[in-house]
Amino acid sequence: MLGWALTFLVVALVAAVLGFGGIAGTAVSIAKLIFFVALILFAISAVAHMVRGRS
Q: By 3-state DSSP, what share of the chain in percent is helix, strand and coil, each rounded to 5?
């Protein structure tokens, strides 16, 4: 999932360099959204692992 966020970030940077402001803004928004979703899923996974304990 972080790979997707990085991909959208690169697309945004390329679009910004080429002057496509609307596409760059949209790609940055999508990259932020995917990054925060990945961060939340990681936190949920870490908490679930701590609650379960060692097996």
A: 90, 0, 10
Domain boundaries, position 37: 2-52
The pTM for the full model equals 0.73
- Specify the amino acid at residue 55: S
**Domain count within the chain:** 1
**pLDDT tens digit string along 2-54?**
788 888 889 988 998 998 888 888 888 998 999 999 999 999 999 999 999 77
Q: Rounded CA gap, 38 and 40, in Å?
A: 5
Angstrom CA distances, 46 to 19, 24, 29, 49, stand at 41, 33, 26, 5
